[in-house]
Design goal:
The complex is a heterodimer of chains A (142) and B (251). Chain A contains 6 helices and 2 strands; from the N terminus they run αααββααα. Chain A is mainly alpha-helical. Chain B is globular. The chains are: A mainly alpha (142), B alpha+beta (251). Chains A and B meet through helix 3, strand 1, helix 4, helix 5 and helix 6 of A and helix 1, helix 2, strand 1 and strand 2 of B.
């Protein structure tokens, strides 16, 4: 499922994302095998894997781009029109395009109750806890 | 906004994300090769924001003469005079006598070691006095080009950006850089003069493995004048927030 996000990304970045995803999936499967009773509430494992891949994509691709947009906005406020990063030039035109992309991605996440905090975890147990909390919230709010 | 549940509307979530990728995929791909640089740029921005929120005035300097753009330096190679940087300044009124302090915030410039003048380290971000030295030394770059660096006495502080999940080793390795560049901060923690500067900082995008990483961060910050910022991905404001200023160690 993670491959849907990364086709056409540079090879090195693809490799980093795939290896993080595979590592997390292995951890998840190991945990579910060892503690099936504790995670009985997890009905849809495919959804967990999808959210995992979404989180990795957010952290590794969208978030740094969002940071560069913020930096360029700062520089623009100081009266400087563009930022050059090697061969890439961040102009007001392509900044608008990037900024819209970041906002659109975050809007989708927000609509589904997902945020940067939701995706910020170290151990897979933490991520499952975040999912559990979101599921609990769902019961009452939707 | 019409809120949805990923559990009940999974197909809608997948459909929205696929639509997003179809619409913006090519835009993102154009920038994907610079992702790790963009994280560094974000951290550079947080440091600038920290100074701005501490009452400093910020100016962009050394813009490209033709295009007027801010030229970001991607690595330690490249002459500093070909790249842009920021100047931060703050004025204090000592019995009506104003005195202005001015510093440069640069990125990817080698800094001379405190222990050995022939050793240079390149932190991602450097806060320094306006004093970059150049020399031609046949031992560096085979004598083919000039070697630029910041002399150790002009170094004010520095920061390292890591787009990873932190490991204990990564955090502790940072102390090695502090020891090489600013060893006094390992001996006399929390002494600072006016104006206060952010102490050497490690900024890590990942949050780290819970309790162990947390106690390493707490222990290092209590022993030395350093900041260990973890989880910068989800809470960047820990670096620059006006309301959490007390939690940031200054020198």
């Amino acid at each position: 499922m993670v491959l849907g996000f990364i086709k056409n990304l540079p090879f090195e970045l693809q490799n980093q994302i795939i290896s993080e995803y595979n590592l997390r999936v292995r951890e998840l499967e190991y945990l579910l095998e060892r503690k099936p009773d504790k995670y009985q509430w997890l009905e849809d494992i495919e959804l967990v894997k999808y959210l995992l891949s979404l989180g990795i994509f957010y952290r590794r691709v969208i978030n740094p781009i969002s940071g560069s947009v913020e930096f360029t906005n700062r520089v623009n406020r100081l009266g400087v029109p563009n930022v050059s990063v090697g061969s890439i030039k961040l102009t007001p035109e392509n900044l608008k395009e990037l900024s819209t992309a970041v906002q659109e991605f975050e809007r989708i996440l927000y609509r589904f109750g997902l945020s940067a905090r939701f995706f910020d975890f170290d151990r897979i147990e933490e991520f499952l806890q975040n999912i559990k909390e979101l599921k609990e919230k769902d019961k009452y709010e939707l | 906004m019409n809120y949805k549940s990923p559990f009940k509307d999974k197909n809608l979530l997948i459909w929205e994300i696929n639509n997003f990728l179809e619409k913006y995929g090519s835009t993102l791909i154009k920038h994907a090769s610079k992702i790790s640089t963009y994280f560094e740029i974000s951290c550079y921005n947080y440091i600038i924001k920290y100074y701005e929120n501490s009452g400093f005035t910020v100016q962009a300097k050394n813009l490209d003469k033709k295009t007027q753009s801010f030229k970001y330096k991607l690595g330690p190679l490249g002459y500093p005079h070909n790249f842009s940087y920021f100047i931060v300044s703050k004025t204090y009124h000592y019995r009506k006598n104003p005195r202005t302090f001015q510093y440069e915030i640069r990125h990817n410039i080698p800094v001379q070691s405190k222990h050995d003048s022939n050793i240079f380290i390149t932190p991602d971000i450097v806060i320094c006095q306006n004093n970059i030295v150049s020399q031609t030394d046949s031992r560096y770059y085979q004598g083919m080009r000039k070697f630029y660096f910041i002399p150790n006495e002009s170094l004010i502080s520095f920061a390292e950006a890591k787009h990873y999940n932190p490991s204990p080793e990564m955090i502790i390795n940072f102390i090695g850089i502090v020891n090489e560049l600013m060893p006094s901060l390992l001996e006399n923690p929390n002494t600072h003069s006016r104006p206060a500067h952010i102490a050497p900082s490690l900024m890590v995008s990942g949050k780290g493995g819970g309790y162990h990483t947390y106690i390493i961060k707490r222990s290092l910050q209590s022993r030395y004048s350093v900041n260990i910022f973890l989880g910068v991905f989800s809470s960047p404001a820990q670096i620059y927030s006006k309301y959490r200023r007390g939690a940031v160690i200054t020198i």
